[in-house]
Amino acid sequence: MKLEQELDLRPDSAVSVDTDRKTSNPWLLHTLLVFALLVWLFAWYGDTTLSTIAIWQRSETYAHGYLIFPISAYLIWTRRHQILGMQPKPSLLGIFSLVGLGLLWLIANSAEALVVSQYALVAMVPAIVWAVLGHRIGLEMLFPLLFLLFAVPVGDFLLAPMMNFTADFTVAALRLTGIPVFREGNFFTVPSGSWSVVEACSGLRYLIASLTLGCLFSYLTYRSMWRRLVFIALSIIVPIIANGIRAYLIVMIGHLSNNRLATGVDHVIYGWVFFGFVMMLLFWIGSQWREAEEPLAPTLQSPQTPQASHPRTPANLAIFALLSAMTIAIWPSYARHIAPGVINAKPVKLEIPSNVENWRARSDAITDWQPHYLTASATAKQAFERDGKKVEVLVKYYRNQRQDAELINSDNQLVSTRDANWGLTSSGSNEVEASKEPLQISESTLRSMRGNLVVWTWYWVDGSFTSNIYLAKIYQAKAKLFGKSDDAAAIFVYAPYDGKPEDAKQILREFVSEAFGSIRSSLSNAKL
After folding, report:
1. How many CB atoms lie within 10 A of CB 43?
2. What is the pLDDT along the chain (528 residues), one digit of tens a residue?
3. Within 13 A of 336's CA, how many CA atoms are on the CB side?
4. Predicted structure pTM score
5. Residue 153's closest CA among 90, 104, 205?
6. Residue of 412, 334, 406 whose CA lies nearest to 376
7. Is the Cα dihedral 498, 500, 501, 504 positive or negative?
């Protein structure tokens, strides 16, 4: 009889182990769930997703965003053997992190804080991995997942300080070289001609590229945390200093060649060639301290098997999937629910009263200066005069705010970085008395060939006044979260001066003390 040859005569335990190995590997189901939740995430947060891609598309500074997700996926792939050797174990803490990030997105979306909402969206990707695969697997993927944050196009707020540093560095280096320099803001003149530090000279592109590559290089090259942190710090410091040297060398090349070189396209070419050389030198030096690589994977002949644990049943996993999907969807759903109450279709009727006590309204403006602010729903301006003292009020009113048409935006500046006439010479904050009330204002001095100004600026949001941009965003978010309109305004009051700025500041104190009530009334009437 050959019947017994067809029977499996192995011990029952051996049969059980083989069966478990065939049926208990949960990776396919968990991986499909992660991808499904990611599709669900980017679908619900489509506006934020598209706004990020749009910035990648239009700005060369952030075009690297297209590469971040593929690089992150590749880094995860290189650790696939270690990851597959672990047992997926869904985590409630991951879902709680999704709750917190979703709430952050809702607040940022209500405040039109695009960068924060983009960070919240991208951070939900690691949170989904954490929720579905568990804490240990999330830690194994930690750097590749955190690397995704480089996809967020952030850094424009650094333009002005980096331009100032570049101008400071270049002028100081020229003077050390013995070349006389006359400086006016970010414009300066040497005997051979005039130069200016514009956005392209700020070095922001170099800094972002260096930091992104530096973090990736430190992860792949070093194992100890202190070496990684040191190299990342150098990836920040070196491009800033190198950009100052680059600007100085370009001015020197132009000066010594009587402006025949480094003044056109070759200006940009010299900059990128110099930056490329500096980065190659930095990475070459960094590679000299390379640490031995840890084993990335066991041999293919003896792969790790998932560690024994108590795997989640399909029913439990379905509950986690449902909780995750609901957590993702609830915040944009609420944002859409409150949107009708926020939208105000009425046109803005904004007028600055001309009957300010003891001040006579002028028919002409006192200056040609205009703040560089994004498209406002309404703008009103009125000049006043008393006893030879001149002052002007400008109000930019915003309703139904959206990207590129909002009160608080990194592009909203007193003086544009491209302005060839006006320069910002100083800025700070102060507290003044307005109708017997304390008022926080931002105080700036502007200079041009046609005159100087002292400018006081503050914001009106949801009936409150502040000069703090972050507090203004909070006021806006609070109003929208409770279904109110997002009406807001920027108020500029400015006076010219010839001698000392204190003369203009005294005029502004007198005017604001008497005109503040009229300005507040005009804003309240415009909101109706």
Report:
1. 12
2. 343 444 344 444 444 444 444 445 678 889 999 999 999 999 999 999 999 999 999 888 899 999 999 999 999 999 998 898 888 989 999 999 999 999 999 999 988 889 999 999 999 999 999 999 999 999 999 999 999 999 999 988 888 889 889 989 999 999 999 899 888 667 788 888 888 787 777 888 889 999 999 999 999 999 899 999 999 999 999 999 998 988 898 888 888 887 676 555 455 666 677 778 888 888 898 888 887 666 544 444 444 444 444 445 677 788 888 999 999 999 999 998 887 767 777 888 898 888 787 899 998 899 989 999 988 999 999 999 998 899 999 999 999 888 788 998 888 999 887 777 888 888 889 999 887 789 999 999 998 878 899 999 999 998 899 999 999 999 999 988 888 888 999 999 999 998 889 999 999 999 999 999 899 999 988 887
3. 9
4. 0.79
5. 205
6. 406
7. negative
The span from the CA of 35 to the CA of 321, in Å, is: 11
Return the residue matching tokens 């999704």. 98
Residue 72 zone, left/alpha/beta (φ > 0; ψ -120 to 50; rest): alpha
Total Cβ atoms within 10 A of residue 239: 26
Q: For residue 293, what is the DSSP state?
A: P
DSSP string, 110-175: HTT-HHHHHHHHHHHHHHHHHHHH-HHHHHHTHHHHHHGGGGS---GGGHHHHHHHHHHHHHHHHH
